Amino acid sequence: MSTSPATIxxxxxxxxRVGSLADVHEAAERVLPDLPTxxxxxxxxxxxxxxxxxxxxxxxxxxxxxxxxALIGPSGCGKSTVxxxxxxxxxxxxxxxxxGEVSYHGQNIYARGVDPIAVRxxxxxxxxxxxxxxxxIYDNVAYGPRVTGMKVENxxxxxxxxxxxxxxxxxxxxxxxxxxxxxxGGQQQRLCIARTIATKPDVILMDEPCSALDPIATSRVEDxxxxxxxDYTIIVVTHNMQQAARVxxxxxxxxxxxxxxxxxxxxxxxEYNLTSNIxxxxxxxxxxxxxxxxxx
Amino acid sequence: MSDAHTGAGSSLGTGLPxxxxxxxxxxxxxxxxxxxxxxxxxxxxxxxxVGIVVALxxxxxxxxADVPFGDFFALEGDLAVxxxxxxxxxxxxxxxxxxxxxxxxxxxxxxxxxxxxxxxxLKPTVELLAGVPxxxxxxxxxxxVTPTLLQKILNLEVGFTNALAAGLVLGVMxxxxxxxxxxxxxxxxxxxxxxxxxxxGANRMQTTLRVVFPxxxxxxxxxxxxxxxxxxGETMIVALAAGARKNLxxxxxxxxxxxxxxxxxxxxxxxxxxxxxxxxxxxxxxLLFVITLIINIxxxxxxxxxxxxx
Amino acid sequence: MSSVAARxxxxxxxxxxxxxxxxxxxxxxxxxxxxxxxxxxxMVLIVLIVTTAIDGAxxxxxxxxxxxxxxLAPERTGFRAGILGSIWLMFTxxxxxxxxxxAAALYLEEFADNGRWYNRFIEVNLQNLAAVPxxxxxxxxxxxMALMGFERKGIVLGGAIALAMLILPVIIITTRxxxxxxxxxxxxxxxxxxxxxxxxxxxxxxxxAVPGxxxxxxxxxxxxxGEAAPxxxxxxxxxxxxxxxxxxxxxxxxxxxxxxxxxxxxEAYQQAASAAIIVLLVMIxxxxxxxxFIRNKFQRSW
Lengths: 296, 310, 302
What we know:
The complex is a heterotrimer of chains A (296), B (310) and C (302).
Chain A: H1 5-17, H2 21-28, E1 39-50, E2 53-64, E3 68-72, H3 79-85, E4 96-104, E5 107-108, H4 116-122, E6 123-126, H5 137-147, H6 155-165, H7 169-172, H8 185-198, E7 203-207, H9 215-228, E8 233-237, H10 241-247, E9 250-258, E10 265-274, H11 275-280, H12 285-291
Parallel strand pairs in A: 2-10, 3-8, 3-9, 6-7, 7-8
Antiparallel strand pairs in A: 1-2, 1-4, 4-5, 9-10
Helix pairs in contact in A: 5-8, 6-8, 8-9
Chain B: H1 2-12, H2 29-66, H3 69-72, H4 82-113, H5 116-131, H6 134-153, H7 163-187, H8 191-199, H9 204-215, H10 217-233, H11 236-241, H12 259-268, H13 276-306
Helix pairs in contact in B: 2-13, 4-7, 4-10, 4-12, 5-7, 6-7, 7-10, 8-9, 10-13, 12-13
Chain C: H1 2-17, H2 25-56, H3 62-66, H4 80-111, H5 117-129, H6 134-147, H7 156-180, H8 184-192, H9 197-226, H10 229-233, H11 254-262, H12 267-298
Helix pairs in contact in C: 2-12, 4-7, 4-9, 4-11, 6-7, 7-9, 8-9, 9-12, 11-12
Pfam family, one (chain B): BPD_transp_1
Family (chain B): Belongs to the binding-protein-dependent transport system permease family. CysTW subfamily.
Region (Disordered) (chain B): 1-27
């Protein structure tokens, strides 16, 4: 596996594709049913509160297996909040309260008796700013399997697989013992993706994974997302509509509605559809305004 | 190409349809035990406070069983505490007269005038003053300040021990407490406020005194109050240099025994456990604890109430 | 109208002559005052060190370190017992205070829910403890030792208990600052991989905070080594003429020996005390230098 020519040619083509968006777009377009038939995760009547503040109102969404779903919308529309509910990272925010259900393979992850840590080993997350640990590249990747007590026959192989999976192996194979802080921003972000796939999750959440990266690094991460779609279900929050159009199969558009009395902005889901429909033929006027740049 | 990916996927992803992953809570007994240990460690700080109160109150109850309140809160007599409190007040006042202007001056320079590089060197240097042991300051007051500075250079008629030397040296000792905290408060004032003032044509002195100083006032007040609490509780300087004799006087040229001086000097002597003089140690200690506690609470509430939200 | 014009003209001249508004006499006096404030303390420190060094110069000999306190020959009195005692006290204090302080700080920073009243109470209590006078800790240590069945005889354990309680708030506060400086993103990254809070603390937060914790601990210990007041209360006396042999052994400390010699009138004792002060200051300055070295060498800027 480690030196399979097919993998090398795959990563070779990844670099070739940098900058040529047409190919990427083509890769992203697939024939899909109108609604996910076998959803991996579902949000059902999801409401999120921070103290008294109603952050997200009644969201219903289904995320399809081996699809990329993009959550887009103006800032403050609650898209990141929804994303953080999907692996219970919102538990870490003091005063956060979640109502409704998040179903993962039919199990409500907010049910009593569910261990948020077990959820997070299945549903991984990549953050806005690359956040490698102050350790070596190798230890960054091996960290997840080590802490979760995964049974690993050969850690070296697992690290290599994960780094190959994140299209980073060729760049770092000679400096695995060096600090992750020596990598460029884009490499760091791909390392964070490698770190996540090393724990063998089912779903990968990405919270604006490219907002801290330059255009070349961004396009590499986008290519990576498309290739990861083969094996994982990906849910990505993005500010960048072109990015959503380039990589995602489905897009959920959120907006923020100000409360009439308090002025607090509550996020709600406006429209959820195949990405091609959202961008070519939106049903809702608000989506159309946002897509065409008239708002947000 | 897609074959290669499927190959990688079969070993990496868990995406086996039909096998729902187990999300049930694991019991982690080791984890809970360690959390309990950490919590207990944090509780030790509370136990210390409770311990202080209990340790002080019990001998004090015994003390007041033998001694009428009137004898303790009296102006004179073996058991009188008023002269000790008065002496503490005199020495502390002198210390604050030294430390407040100098501490705030140093803070203003560090925060408003010094370049970052200069500040990085000067601030630790000033803080070094706080690292000098108080017994060393006490020796300095006794061996240099009184005989050389006060008697020879300033030609004052002061005793071998006197409140003035103790107060001056104590003031120097608490300069860094005040300077450091006041500097933090002033450094927290947003740059925009300074620029607003400078843009209107004010010079740096005006900006410092009329914009930065008022904006940082609550932090500065807390710094001064904390300095006060240090001064009241400081022991070795006054034990060595302020005097070992009760003296109800406000003349700083005379020697006078302060509360902490009394405690240190009595502890050094031979007092059998349970005797009245031994118990008085705790009575004075309790009074000292209460006084500093009140000062600290004032300091904490100043910070709370006036905490500026920039 | 004309006055405005006149003023503008005047301001323009000022700009062109390059005379800063920061150079007015008032401003210069103010700046001078600030300079004086800053350097007054430093001046005092220099005078203190120089005069003490001069006073103690005749006694910088081997006997200072190797001899015990002597009443028969004050000119050959030494601080062997005090120096060894201070080292013993420092290590025992560290053993008592450092693990406890780090554990408490980790609880407060990483585990405590600040919405709970008892956590807020611990918080306020800690702020108060940091400002309790050191003599009061001495009184508490006396009571603790009495509870354990020890009389006031000035043994290592008693002194170390007093000093440990004294520096505990310092260690907790500096550890918390060091822990807080580790970015939240690192914690979230670890938690998102399925690590528990404890694993995250042990494998990510704590290792990153070690330099800061070490710096704070050393500064706390350097404060402990100079303290005399709580040790006086726990019964340490200057005249101990043997080496400490364990935590139950009677002991003296350098600051205590300095205190008791300062109270003697013979010139020889004053000289010895001066020399001992220089020894004590060197010990404290080395600890401070070590702390600064650790901070500069290992501190990560995120």
